[in-house]
Amino acid sequence: MATENDIEGGVLADEETDVREPEEYRVILLNDDYTTMEFVVAVIMSVFHKDLFEATRVMFDVHRKGRGVVGTYTYDIAATKVHKVHEMARENGFPLKCVMEKA
Q: Which residues are registered as beta bridge partners of 102?
């Protein structure tokens, strides 16, 4: 006797799909003795699309605390933003460092 599962195209088994949110990473700017505050603000506004107030706040975190979190993103977006920061810094002759860490 044929059951519904024996029929071609029928459901053979219920499969549960494990759906997870992508891991997120914090992007952090690190302080140095050479990069100007104005350049850091410009980078934050350009790469991270923050307004002047927020960019200035993050810049002061970098200056006073040695590091400032500019955003949390999925891996690919975070890595791209880190690359853009390093590229802008290099083009402008600054040693600004940017890193990412798991959130």
A: 25
Of the candidates 38, 4, 27, 19, the residue with the CA atom closest to the CA atom of residue 86: 27
Q: What is the pLDDT of residues 87-102, one digit of tens each?
A: 999 999 999 999 999 9
The answer to whether the CB of 68 falls within 8 A of the CB of 97 is no
Task: Return the domain boundaries, the chain.
Answer: 33-102
Q: Is the pTM of this model over 0.85?
A: no
Q: Burial, 56: exposed, middle or buried (Cβ in 10 Å; 0-12, 13-18, 19+)?
A: middle
Q: What is the CATH number of domain 33-102?
A: 3.30.1390.10
Rg of the Cα atoms in the chain? 23
Residue 59: its H or E element: helix 52-65
